[in-house]
Amino acid sequence: MARTSTAPTAPHDPKVAADVEAVIATLGGMVEAAFHVVDQIAGLVARQVGGPGARTRARLAGVEDLAGSYVGDSQHPVRGAGFVAAVGFLVDQPWWLEWFAAGEDGRSHRMVSQTDPDGAGFYDYEFLPWYVVPRDTGHRHVTGPYIDYVCTDDYNMTYTAPVVLEGRFAGVAGADVGVQTAESILMPSLRAASRRVAVVNQQGRVVASNSGRHLCGDLVSDVDVPALWERPSPALHVLPGLPLGVLELGS
Amino acid sequence: MAIQFYGRATAAVFAPLDSTSRSARVARRLTDAIALGLLPDGEQLPGEADLAQQLGVSTVTIREALSVLRQEGLIETRRGRGGGSFVRAPEDGPTALAKRRLAEVSLLELRDVGDLYAAIAGAAAALAARRCDSDDVRHLRRAAAHLADAQKPDARRRAEAQFHIQVTVASQSARLYHEEVGLQAEFGTLLWLAFGDDDSHEQMVTSCDAVVDAIEARDADLARRTAEQRVAAATERLIDYRLSKEL
User: Fold this and answer.
1) Same-domain pairing of A35 and A140
2) Name one Pfam family in it (chain A) (predicted).
């Protein structure tokens, strides 16, 4: 798979140094690879569930093969993918996750979660950012790096996009990329950079960097990243419309 | 075989990996799950081959563990079509099971696990104070509010467990998270024997709020101290309970 070839990043800015540009392109490529999976799942769900007839779980049938074709491919960065229905959207399952994740054997497995609100260990996703942000903004979102304690028990980044049918929020299509995978994808361009740079999210949390003081999960403390997001700065290169960017850390 | 002496520091390398046998550990894990109510009465366990694969042990080990559970009356195995192993929660409830477990544990062991738990909880809280963002604080407040609102002992136990999971999530450490989950399964069941009443619940809500306050203030030292004290106080309470009851 071409991880970097289709990277749609910010328009080329001659003031951005080539080594930083390379990190931005690698990040953009990884993000697009994940959203490519998300968009295909969103499209499939829209085709299958849109239109007349009762909206039932059965109409999500094709998601398994589609998600599995990426999740079960060890060369692809996406290790989990699927569709999470808006609460109350499906008539037969008020809460439902049609989700698939790579098992120890590398194959794609259905994730079974408790969708009965009265059951022990109920998976209440209605307040989780990967669900809430696309629902409330109508846009794509990247959640993490975070410890996914309700689902995969792993250190993850989750890429989600809303699925809207006839003006109504139907749920989110999503894909997971583990932070270790993200690190291995981003590291070559980070290592090649001649200055200290970090891939950060909007909160200033580090995804990967070439500085030992800024490891994945740390918050950048010497710069107010959330504030930088509000007003353009030559030190921060934001992926358009996403809470991810490349931050030049200074010497 | 001659036993080489490699010096004190390296001796740990050649120490037995685990003193309890694998089947005993599997039996303990399933017993804890039944005691915690994670495996409710009547629940069918996965087949032997599936269990072996999931837990990463041989089917022989699973068979041994299941036979222990069968002897203790915690599962019932039916043959033939629609057969399998089914959970039989003890008639006197999960609490009785936890009491039996507690009776087998020495005071020294209790203190030892309590010390480890305090170290884990303290480290997680200190890292959370350094690494939390505004979302994390919001989730912690939400979890603390859930705990404060919980009325029944079982709901309180789940809300409290959830709160501590959230602290390790805010610490951004996958290892600390896994340690917390493991300790909750091992130690949480026992701790809850001494908790759940209104008096202890109030204390717990206060101490959890204090942990969130310290995390939000980004005071790592205070967060560590507060979390350590909470676990130390809980362990003490459990030891007092163990001493006061005829188990």
Assistant:
1) yes
2) MCP-like_PDC_1
